[in-house]
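User: I'm preparing a small set of examples for a lab meeting where we compare how different chains pack in three dimensions. I only have the primary sequence for this one, and I'd like the structure in token form so I can line it up with the others. Please keep the answer compact; I'll paste it straight into my notes.
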Amino acid sequence: MKAVRVHAYHTDPTIDEIPKPTLRGPLDVVVKIGGAGVCRTDLHILEGQWDAAMSPDLPYVIGHENAGWVHAVGEGVTNVAVGDTVILHPQPSCGLCPACRAGRDMQCRNAFFPGLSNDDGGMAEYLRTTARACVKLQPDTDPADVAALADAGITAYHAVRKAVPSLYPGTTAVVQGAGGLGHIGIQALAALTATRIVVVDRNPDALALAGKIGADETVLADGTHVDAVKDLTSGAGAEVVFDFVAEQGAENDAWQMTAPAGSHYVIGYGGEVRIPTLDFVGGEKNIIGNIVGTYSDLAELMVLAQAGRVTLHTRRYPLDAALDALHDLDAGRVRGRAILVP
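Assistant: Understood. Below is the structure token output for the 342-residue chain.
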């Protein structure tokens, strides 16, 4: 089968012919990929940023936003069958450790992460995962339409879901960054809360899209955006700020836009938050980190997606054009999400 493989960091991956994955255990599932999302994390992988954390053996296949059709199942699999349309939680978990028992899938002690850990990902024709990762979809769902919800979608939804108790009517939520994750976060906020949604982005096209999918106010990130948000909130800032950028200074802007007793949710990464400790004490403000989400988050998100409440804005590329997709994403030429279709 064809697969996009990393052979060395700081260089482009290649499209190789490799063996199709096989079942290894009774709960394994092999999925024929119908769509694989291209994520900024893939760019960070190519830069070597995840090597210390995951230490995969090179070469390996990237791709952690995957959907498709069940191709083969282990003898213990009962929740899906060959031919089912599925979207895959990006990190299969064991279900038995204390974190799993508490519903904290991403802290599973025995998890693996296809496309990041020492396991091949889904930028290929087939992928091996487990039954615990499979969320069954309506049969007529096009996997390429929903694939990016497996990571970008669940990450945005997970942050919004946690913030819901703070976003009662009369509050304001700021979404910083209306790109691949942010445009999903806007829709999740509109679906789950009655908060006023203010979107900040430096790209006018992204702001135009935000206005169509749920934003009540949009602010151009032109250096005056922190003051603009303060003006919209009577000088206080927002009860919740979702930072989908978190680099190049945006992470500190997000903190400045957060109201006293408010919460700054960090979803993007790459920067460094620098805050005087007195700001925490005097303002009673919180910083909350986010990493992907739970299986239940993904299942709930797919209910919204299949009801048309959350939609992905995508640009499709054939698998052979994977390098074009990665380069376009890196250069900022992709609005929404890039999807590889084998």
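A couple of notes for your slides: Residues 2-151+312-341 form a domain with the Quinone Oxidoreductase; Chain A, domain 1 fold (CATH 3.90.180.10). The first strand starts at residue 2 and ends at 6.

User: Perfect, thanks.
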